[in-house]
Specification:
2 copies of one chain form a homodimer. By secondary structure, chain A is mostly helical. Chain A folds into 2 domains: about 140 residues, Farnesyl Diphosphate Synthase (Orthogonal Bundle); about 140 residues, Orthogonal Bundle (Farnesyl Diphosphate Synthase). Helix content of chain A is about 75%, strand content about 0%. Chain A contains 16 helices and 2 strands. In chain A, strands 1-2 form a two-stranded antiparallel sheet. In chain A, a hairpin with a 2-residue loop joins β1 and β2. In chain A, α4 packs antiparallel against α6, α4 runs parallel beside α7 and α4 packs antiparallel against α8. Chain A is globular. The two termini of chain A are about 30 Å apart. The mean pLDDT of chain A is about 95.
Amino acid sequence: MQDVPALRSLFEQYLADNLIDKEPKALYEPFNYIMKMGGKRMRPVMALLACQLFDVDAEAALPAALSVEIFHNFSLVHDDIMDEADIRRGQATVHKKYGLNSGILSGDVMLIYAYDFLRQTSRAEAIPELVNTLSQVAIRVCEGQQYDVDFEVRPSVSLDEYLLMIEMKTAALLAGSLKMGALSAGANERDQLHLSAFGRLPGIAFHIQDDYLDTFGAPNKVGKRPGGDIVQNKKTCLYIRALEVGNDAQRAALQKWYSEPSSNEAEKVKSVTAIFTALGIPEYIKTLRNEYQQRAYEHLAKVSVDKDAKAALYGLAESLLVREL
Amino acid sequence: MQDVPALRSLFEQYLADNLIDKEPKALYEPFNYIMKMGGKRMRPVMALLACQLFDVDAEAALPAALSVEIFHNFSLVHDDIMDEADIRRGQATVHKKYGLNSGILSGDVMLIYAYDFLRQTSRAEAIPELVNTLSQVAIRVCEGQQYDVDFEVRPSVSLDEYLLMIEMKTAALLAGSLKMGALSAGANERDQLHLSAFGRLPGIAFHIQDDYLDTFGAPNKVGKRPGGDIVQNKKTCLYIRALEVGNDAQRAALQKWYSEPSSNEAEKVKSVTAIFTALGIPEYIKTLRNEYQQRAYEHLAKVSVDKDAKAALYGLAESLLVREL
């Protein structure tokens, strides 16, 4: 069993060995540029951890790990175009550095390579289901991205709809990474399902927590002044829940604050936070996060392998989530 | 054996049965919009023809046929963005009708479905190689598109490089359509190779012929005044070959004509055509086209099935190519 730092190194080496060094340069340079930008390599590490959970060397899941990391980076390249984002991980985004057309076309070829690398999987009989899993995850990610766009302009969105969007846009790929690692190891279907569920839930819990901390986090812990989301009129879990449970006056006040640029940001943050607090939103959201976290651990407990082997996956989930909100 | 019109109907019905009717609408509406726009359905018909060549019902290749048609339309959606094209088959392009972001994201989900539909293939043992063929073709198409972009700004491009770009950008998918049809039928590797080669060559021949006819076609046959490519400074086979074989004065004259917007279009067409003719370009290009066509037929002849069964594929190639240039 290799630990997380060892698995990360293993993945970095495999990635370096598989960077695409061929013509046309203008197609593959942006591909390599974003792949080398780093990041925590959360998804590939999850695939490798899932594989060795079943007493199979992590190496067996390297193609799946590379596939999910390429897919993740493909989605960043195209999302950054759609969001008109200039900076990613402190560097210029692909389309900012290489132009719109290169962003589109390099993203396309990355999506194709996410499929193509799966052919390197040593357990050949797993390949069709790996391809299928990648497709189902990829479809969910695209649908989630579309819902995110739709929700920006829709007058009302329920918390359930919002959480489903988060599940599709971000948690599905975390779940898929674990499933593809398990598939690479030949795990049974029941274990694949519990692992997928385990992977999905902390992704959602993390997002809920992120929304919570932005408004209610202690500044010394979070490292920034609370209320950034409120200033930016971001439709977070807190805001959506408040619209669901608030009375007419509270809803009208929230919608007014969120419909115009505020001349007094401090006053806006204070007023909106007061409405959230009056409605019991922080407690509700804390409980919601804890429920997702709890259910995740229940699924992990049901995976039919030795308890010790799961420690690294518990650890990874714990590292995402603050113990006490 | 079904004829081409019957196969086209078969495909249209399968497509209609498989249009994606689910949420989010904003993602799938552009997908269905371009798929329903029509076109000749050349690629799916080729896949179906290739399948029944091996005495297997064309129905067996319907998933492969749908896959190549979706892939083709995905590439049109993203290419139209890159080319800033407003009109496609007489209708608004996807990004023009639905916006840039929908064009990118719907294109992405189409590429994923091009893979996903292959799972419906009844010969399950063919699926891994179908997926692999789609990936290899898709990579070539992206590379070809990148070379096309690169060549626009490169000071000089050889005819060989230009023809390779054409092979990648358009002929590879025609070849892949035949190969995927043959794979769906369980054809042997040798037959797959000859069919691929057969599919690739008329695609290139057609492109060469298109360049030729634009300048040297009889207006009553071509249906437009000759010289449109010259007026638009398009770097066709004729132009590239002329730069390769012309003397310094001829090259300088050509480059001058192509470097500035012309105030007198008729004079420009006349002068450039005269240089092409003086260099023997029309004869060279005619011979080149005929060679590609001839080699295509040689490959088709080598496919190990009854000669009559190949008639429809001969017919399809013939319908692309003018008999006498």
